[in-house]
Amino acid sequence: MRFLLANEKLVVAERSYPGFPLLLDDNCHAMEPAQTFLWYLLTKPGRVESKKTWEAYGWAMFDFFAFVSRNKILWDGTPAPGMPAAVAAYRDWSKGTLGLESNTINQRLHIIVRFYEWALREGHIEKLPYGRVTVRTRRQRFLAHVDMTGGTIESADILLRQKKSRP
Question: Looking at the domain assignment, is residue 14 inside a domain?
Answer without folding.
Answer: yes
